[in-house]
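Re-running the complex after MR caught last week's input typo. The corrected sequence lines follow. Everything else is unchanged.
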Amino acid sequence: MTKSSDKELLRASFKLEYPYERSPGPVIGKFFDELSNEVLVGTKNSKGEVFVPAAEFDPKDSEHLSEFVEVKNEGVVQSYTWIEKPRAHHLIQESFAFALICMNGTNSAMLHMIANCKEDELEIGKRVKVVWNQEKTSTIRDIKYFEIIDD
Amino acid sequence: MTEEKKDFFVSDISLSYQYTAGNATTRFLNKVAEGKLVAQKCPKCSAVYVPPRGSCPRCGIATEEELELPDTGAVESFTIVHIPIPGNPIVPPYVSAMIRLDGADISFLHLIQEIDLAEIRIGMRVQAVWKDKSEWGTTLENIKWFKPTGEDDVDPLVFKFKE
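Corrected-run output:
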């Protein structure tokens, strides 16, 4: 039997997709709706702690949360991962960071991107602010990315 | 504040990748492109595999001997699909079946058409319906579907894997 060399192997490109419709529900739905107004809202528990993105339940004691509060479009980097070479599916096509950002006055962190900076400019504790997308879709993409606040 | 509520939105999760067929499947598909279904036989237990994967999962050894099988076989198992799947061009209801080619010890998934859905059953004899030769490529889609031959059913016991 003749063995095929590696070069003769058949190859084909495939794309696996899971298109589905998601319901964000009343709380995350409100959070997304307000993003299109360039407003960030969170929810507040009975101890006065605030969660952004708005959480439907307190992650610690499962308290049902329904009180909305508006927060400022600024936060602090809690942790980050630097993406030196973005892949084709990334929304930003130059070096950027995925980061957990604690919005000012909140007790939670939000996953988003930080762009317009060099790797050595970024560090935990840096203050960042929202850069809005011109085109609004009432999704998390209404925030284009965060950028460092120059002190 | 917008009054309009956004109840649902489409999530677009996708994964693009490159599939490499490997030696056994490459050889199989190159034969399919010539209209032939070529199986591989285990040198130890004599089990015949189509499509071949280059080894016998039972004996754990490489399979090299090749043999051409006919494009006839029997229905080992089937499902009648009534629910449309997004992106699937086949209009329900249709039959997805595990087809055991004559001489093979395993079955593979394909379509059965040209059939009254009430007639489909395990053991039913079927034959491949090939596309026009001009459309053949290195894909099992060269076979459009299988259709009943009208011959007598096979005894489902023949599907038992040989010891």
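None of the earlier attempt is carried over here. The longest strand of chain A covers residues 11-22. Residues 5 and 11 of chain A are 13 Å apart (CA to CA).
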